[in-house]
Amino acid sequence: MSGGTALMLMMKAGVLRPARVVSLSKLGLSQIEVNDGALRIGAMATLRSLETSPALKGWPVIVKTLRTLANVRVRNVATVGGALAHGDPHMDLPPVLVALGAKAAIAGPKGTRMLAVEHLITGYLETALAAGELVTHVEIPTLGSRGAAYLKCTTRSADDWPAVGVAVVMDGAKADIVVSAATDRPTRIDSAEAVEGLQIESDLHGSAAYKKQLLRVYIKRAIDEARKPVH
Length: 231
Hints:
Layout: H1 5-12, E1 32-35, E2 38-42, H2 47-51, H3 60-67, H4 72-75, H5 80-85, H6 93-99, E3 103-108, E4 111-116, H7 117-120, E5 121-123, E6 126-127, E7 134-140, E8 147-154, E9 162-171, E10 174-180, E11 187-189, H8 208-227
Antiparallel strand pairs: 1-2, 2-7, 3-4, 3-7, 5-6, 8-9, 9-10, 10-11
């Protein structure tokens, strides 16, 4: 158990009945630091500690994303590692990390390995983590002169699960676009036109046709936002 925000809900609903729950809080995995220009975030760092960390100065898109992620009570206990290991496509942070080119460090009985966050989440509530493996930290390359933005559309309050999420990183005229919530995992596409080929399922947040239209609108808005100079 890291933050326990998802785990406890699943246990209360009877979806998960573990024989034993082990806290990861004493593994020393909560540090947030910059090494050689790259941001390193421990898997046990809470979303709130990440939101308020001075180390995030060079990655303002992460701070802006976290400010509208759930609410401050959740962010006080939810962890970065949990946001990745749970594999929920409605999470705000994973698409941003994918667009930024982040990698996850994974430790297990067979040793350690690095895996792009893009390949870590493999489907709805599914990841590439093998039995006994843990995410220990996340490494994010320097943003440099690139612009970045994350926008989402929620059907109720601003802190609700998004109907769609769009993360964009601009490198000159080139846009790295990652969509989420409407798909079963953070999904990279090369243009707004590529939305037509996505497999989108209807849910309580909207029909597939409605979500496709939202994606067309929000991709353009996110690209425009990522092009704005950072003050």
